[in-house]
Design a protein that fits this description.
mainly alpha; three-stranded mixed beta sheet; 65% helix; 2% strand; binds zinc ion
């Protein structure tokens, strides 16, 4: 009897990390100022450790851990089904306990390593962006500026294969500069940027890039449009810098691209803006496109065609899951947050302290 009680106690202990992660989420949501202090003090140290590990390893630690996790779960399932001394109910209960332990530990690692950044004070508040004053005229001005930039953009083909190391180094330094100007000294951002071995999985899921919250490494899909890929890269580097929310990461990444001395970065900024402009109710995107030169128009249409061609039940499921993830992480806009960057950029153009980017 005593042994059984003890076993039940151990079973319940499996839920403690999950409970701690939930409490940490609630605490962080109520204390954004403390989370901002975490970003400026603890996060750079965590970033240094995790990204150094990712840089030292020849393969992506995220991919390796994912593979080990899948193998470990299969092994545990096989072992559970083979054990004859446990009844089916006890077996299911044990599975639930082990899953709760695993999810709890992963959630704690996620929060401490990066996820708490979702609970920083909103970028509109930190940067004093008057989003409520953004109207159709301001968005149209932003669109006209993007069209002008695209029309003077590069007519040469981007380098193939992708010179990832050079682009990542230049854009990381620009992202750091935006971050430093607006939020103070950024994390070290010695981030590992690589194309994963299983990159086809990213393509099937409709993902162009992602930042691993567990190792602060940026993983990119090499099949993405070569004209906008630097904007995607800058967006991911902003994530690694501690801008967790999608609109904030896009804002920092796009400002970095716009400031870049490299014409391909500025062109990527312009195309990225025009693609998202389409989805903002305030903006008459079609009107802005009437002034596009044939070259950028072809590039924009090619990018739309690429995105349309890869649409599938799998990409839709990924998008729905992403929406759920973003909302549960504290972003009330979910996947609409990606296009909300247009409103932030329009507000940013009229921010008196930020004339440099106009
Ligand atoms: Zn993102």
């Amino acid at each position: 009897m005593g042994t059984e009680k003890c076993a039940r106690g151990w079973d319940l202990a499996n839920f403690l990390p999950l409970l701690a992660a939930l409490l940490a989420q609630y605490w962080a949501a109520a204390h954004p100022t403390a989370v901002e202090a975490y970003w400026s003090s603890a996060y750079p140290l965590i970033d240094l450790c995790l990204s150094t590990l990712a840089l030292l390893l020849p393969v992506s630690p995220t991919e390796v851990c994912l593979l080990l996790l899948i193998l470990g779960i299969c092994w545990l399932l096989a072992r559970g089904f083979r054990s004859r001394h446990l009844g089916p109910l006890r077996l299911v209960w044990r599975g639930v306990c082990r899953s709760a332990l695993l999810c709890g530990l992963l959630a704690l690692w996620f929060l401490a390593g990066w996820g708490l950044n979702y609970r920083r004070p909103p970028i509109t508040q930190r940067w004093h962006l008057a989003v409520e004053q953004v109207d159709e005229t301001r968005v149209r001005k932003l669109a006209a500026e993007a069209v002008l930039l695209a029309n003077t953009g590069p007519i040469t083909e981007p380098s193939e294969p992708w010179d990832l190391a050079q682009d990542a180094s230049r854009l990381a330094s620009l992202v750091r500069s935006v971050c430093h100007q607006m939020d103070g000294p950024p994390p070290l951002l010695s981030v590992a940027v690589r194309i994963p071995v299983a990159w086809r999985l990213l393509e099937w899921l409709g993902i162009d890039g992602l930042t691993s919250p567990f190792f602060h490494e940026v993983l990119l899909n090499p099949q993405q449009g070569s004209r906008v890929r630097n904007a995607v890269l800058a967006h991911e580097l902003a994530h690694a810098c501690g801008y967790a929310r999608e609109d904030a990461a896009s804002l920092v990444g796009l400002l970095a691209c716009k400031r870049s001395p490299n014409p391909a970065d500025r062109y990527a900024y312009a195309l990225f803006v025009m693609m998202h402009l389409w989805k903002v109710p305030l903006a008459d995107g079609r009107k802005a496109l009437e002034h596009l030169a044939p070259g950028p128009r072809r590039d924009l249409e090619a990018e739309w065609a690429r995105l349309k061609a890869r649409r599938s039940p799998l990409t839709r499921a990924q998008s729905a899951l992403n929406d759920f993830y973003l909302r549960s992480a504290g972003d009330p806009h979910g996947t609409d947050s990606y296009s909300r960057v247009i409103i932030l950029l329009a507000a940013h153009r009229h921010c008196p302290s930020l004339r440099r980017d106009r």
